[in-house]
Specification:
Blueprint: E1 2-3, H1 4-14, E2 19-22, H2 29-37, E3 42-45, H3 49-63, E4 67-71, H4 75-89, E5 94-100, H5 116-120, E6 126-129, H6 136-148, E7 154-160, H7 161-165, E8 167-168, H8 185-197, E9 201-205, H9 212-225, E10 229-231, E11 246-249, H10 256-264, E12 267-271, H11 277-280
Parallel strand pairs: 2-3, 2-4, 4-5, 5-7, 6-7, 9-10, 9-12, 10-11
Antiparallel strand pairs: 1-8
Helix pairs in contact: 1-2, 1-6, 3-4
Length: 284
């Protein structure tokens, strides 16, 4: 028999989590006990929930696996919302676990009670609340899957206090593996044909999920085709800034010459990036 907090932390370990960020709160004490005792997960305690959410988001960016943050209910959740918003806009895998009032107290305007489904709906890929301790492995596995599937992003799971403290018998879920998309040979050939026929091509890179190997492959690609590469907002490290093919970044206050080059290009190859407000200079 394990209590819900122990079950949850065991699922994190099975999914390769080595680092968790949190600001302590009474609503998830069972999780804190399990983290304290766990031999392989390092717990970092922050001073404010916005900080730990940002740290978890940064881990997601660097590793391609969901960054993990725990915050308490009410103000803890609202403070953490900024990090969730960044993860959404930057396509970063992240899971925010939020303490919640006991099940019997819900919908009574209990102390610091918040409806997380409504609060985080515009910010997260999926928001759920675990109501049965036996389903914790299922919910955690789905959270990992959704955070990494398709366009990566943040997931929020509410943790009622009594669900975490209840002891149940349940098997662990298998670890979640991220699906790796690959271009079909025909699509790659079509892109090569378009590049060969372009007079003023430009590659724009951004989004989440980039690794050192992917960046190095992009450098080889750009060098082979002698094509300029620009980076999207907050993605300057996706391409070697010292490389002869580096054209600059389309962030706030972008170089006017780069903006002109984008506007005059006859082929814009967008790799991994959203064409967001900042990158496009106001959707122009």
């Amino acid at each position: 028999m394990r209590h819900g907090g122990r079950i949850l932390v065991d699922q994190l370990a099975r999914n390769g989590v080595e680092l968790a960020f949190q600001v302590p709160g009474e609503s998830f004490l069972a999780v804190l006990d399990a983290l304290h005792d766990h031999p392989t997960i390092r717990t970092v305690t922050g001073r404010q929930e916005g900080g730990v959410a940002m740290m978890a988001e940064a881990v997601g960016k660097l590793t391609g696996r969901p960054g993990i943050a725990f915050v308490t209910r009410g103000p803890g959740a609202t403070n953490a919302a900024a990090g969730v918003h960044v993860a959404r806009q930057d396509s970063t895998p992240m899971i925010l676990f939020v303490g919640q009032v006991p099940l019997a107290m819900r919908d009574r305007e209990a102390f610091q009670e918040v409806d997380y489904r409504r609060m985080f709906a515009p910010l997260a890929k999926w928001v759920a609340e675990i109501e049965d301790s036996r389903r914790i492995p299922e919910y955690v596995a789905r959270a990992f899957h959704l955070a990494m599937a398709g366009r990566p992003g943040p997931v929020v799971l509410g943790l009622p206090e009594d669900v975490l403290s209840r002891e149940v018998e349940v098997a662990d879920a298998p670890p979640v593996m991220a699906a790796v998309p690959r271009a079909a040979p025909a699509d790659a050939a079509a892109v090569a044909e378009r590049l060969a026929g372009a007079d003023r091509p430009l590659v724009l890179v951004g989004g989440g999920g980039w690794s050192a190997a992917a960046s190095e492959a992009l450098v080889r690609f750009a060098g082979a085709w002698e094509v300029p590469v620009a980076t999207a907002f907050r993605c300057q490290d996706h391409f070697d800034n010292r490389h002869p093919c580096y054209a600059g970044d389309l962030g706030i206050g972008a170089d006017p010459e780069l903006a002109t080059a984008v506007a005059e290009s006859d082929l814009l190859l967008a790799v991994g990036t959203r064409l967001d407000e900042i990158t496009t200079g106001g959707y122009r």
